Amino acid sequence: MTTTWDLLTEAHQALRTAVMGIPADGWGRPTPAEAWNVTQVLQHAAGDQRAYASALTGGPKPTEDPFAPSGELGATPAEVLEPALAATVAAFGTVDSPDTEVAVPLPPFKLPAGVAVAAAALDAAVHAWDIAVATGQLSPLSPGLALALRPAADALVEPLRGFAFAPAIEPAIDADEADSLLNFLGRRADWKA
């Protein structure tokens, strides 16, 4: 059986669009992911998607540590990204129900599939935003997408603060769902290159 996860599809498309929109001189630009440039964010995002697929299937793990990206792609952006996205889609496609417990690469290491797929989508969408704002593109993180991702963030972020997420930032009074999500994840929604 193949299950379709619309949230993952939308987040993957956001990441794909942001990566394909990187200008030739954009790969070394700084990003909201403080210590990483655009190339490293792409490596990290692709590695995280591979890690989700590997946790689910026992298949290939990322070729390098997603939390220590080298900054050297060694292939075209599409060759780095597309196999990782395809692996994640295929892995989650084997899950019959959003309530099925599945393995994930970070604590708590097992989640209901609906939360796990939202966590993979959250990762892809936020890194799409990182790349887009670092390279002068429009934000792919719409308020609607952010609203759909927020429950996963609420369920997963706190135990990973200081490792995968920075301290939360108080959102502005007029913040929309996208800005509020970014602030909750420790990103400045008004970040500029």
UniProtKB/TrEMBL annotation:
A Pfam family that the UniProt record links to this protein: MDMPI_N
Domain of life: Bacteria
SUPFAM superfamilies for this protein: DinB/YfiT-like putative metalloenzymes
Region of interest (Disordered), residue spans: 53-74
Domain Mycothiol-dependent maleylpyruvate isomerase metal-binding: 8-132
InterPro entries: CHP03086, DinB/YfiT-like, Maleyloyr_isom, MDMPI_metal-binding
Name assigned to this protein: TIGR03086 family metal-binding protein
Organism the protein comes from: Streptacidiphilus cavernicola
